[in-house]
């Protein structure tokens, strides 16, 4: 069985947001959006929405309230209770990690496009996820990864 328990919650959250960032086509963003991208914050949340328990019939792997964004403050909040339940407790459900990357990207899009409806945000999220253009030059990527691996070991 795969275990995630060796990572702290905060470190894992950092990795998830870094992974989500890889899907953002920064060359297509405006200066204002790039500023938002460079300056948004994320943290765990324990508000009433995030703490609410939903009946199983209303949930997916992770309920829609896994995260929420404050577009004015450029802040993303991730439900601490659900994060720990799905990613740092046994049994670990591997697909939950991908679901949280999608959640992080979705909430980043709320910050980048504050006028988008929920449907537009959802569409943009899956547009970026499907493109997966974070490796534009596979050979260069491979060489850089090998160089970093050698330097780190």
How would you describe this structure to a colleague?
The protein has helices spanning 9-21, 31-39, 48-51, 80-87, 94-112, 118-131, 138-152, and strands at residues 41-45, 67-70, 75-79. It has 153 residues and is mainly alpha-helical. The protein has one domain (9-152). α1 (9-21) crosses α5. It starts with 8 loop residues before the first helix and ends with a helix. The mean pLDDT is 82.
Summarize the structure.
The protein has helices at 9-21, 31-39, 48-51, 80-87, 94-112, 118-131, 138-152; strands spanning 41-45, 67-70, 75-79. The protein has 153 residues and is mainly alpha-helical.
How would the blueprint of this fold be written?
Layout: H1 9-21, H2 31-39, E1 41-45, H3 48-51, E2 67-70, E3 75-79, H4 80-87, H5 94-112, H6 118-131, H7 138-152
Parallel strand pairs: 1-3
Antiparallel strand pairs: 2-3
Helix pairs in contact: 1-5, 5-6
Taking the alpha carbons of the first and last residues, their distance comes to 27 Å
Shape: globular
- Cα-atom radius of gyration: 17 Å
Strand sequence of the main sheet, in spatial order?
A: 1-3-2
**Biggest β-sheet description:** 3 strands, mixed
Strand-pairing-aware structural class? mainly alpha
So what's the oligomer here? single chain
Number of helices: 7
Kindly state the number of beta strands: 3
Average pLDDT: 82
What portion of the residues fall into strands of 2 or more residues? 5-15%
As for the number of domains, it is 1
Low-confidence stretches: none
Helix content estimate: 40-55%
Reading the helices and strands in chain order gives HHEHEEHHHH
């Amino acid at each position: 069985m795969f275990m995630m328990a060796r990572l702290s919650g905060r470190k894992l959250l950092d990795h998830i947001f870094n992974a989500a960032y890889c899907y953002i086509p920064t060359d297509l963003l405006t200066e204002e959006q790039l500023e938002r991208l460079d300056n948004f914050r994320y943290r765990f949340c324990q508000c009433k929405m995030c703490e609410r328990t939903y009946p199983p019939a209303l949930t997916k792997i992770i309920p829609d309230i896994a995260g929420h964004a404050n577009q004015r403050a450029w802040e993303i909040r991730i439900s601490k209770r659900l994060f720990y339940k799905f990613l740092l407790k046994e049994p670990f459900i591997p697909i939950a990690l991908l679901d949280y990357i999608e959640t992080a990207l979705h909430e980043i899009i709320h910050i980048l496009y504050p006028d988008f409806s929920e449907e537009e945000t959802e569409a943009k999220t899956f547009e970026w996820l499907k493109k997966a253009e974070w490796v534009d030059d596979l050979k260069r990527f491979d060489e850089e990864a090998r160089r970093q691996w050698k330097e780190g070991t």
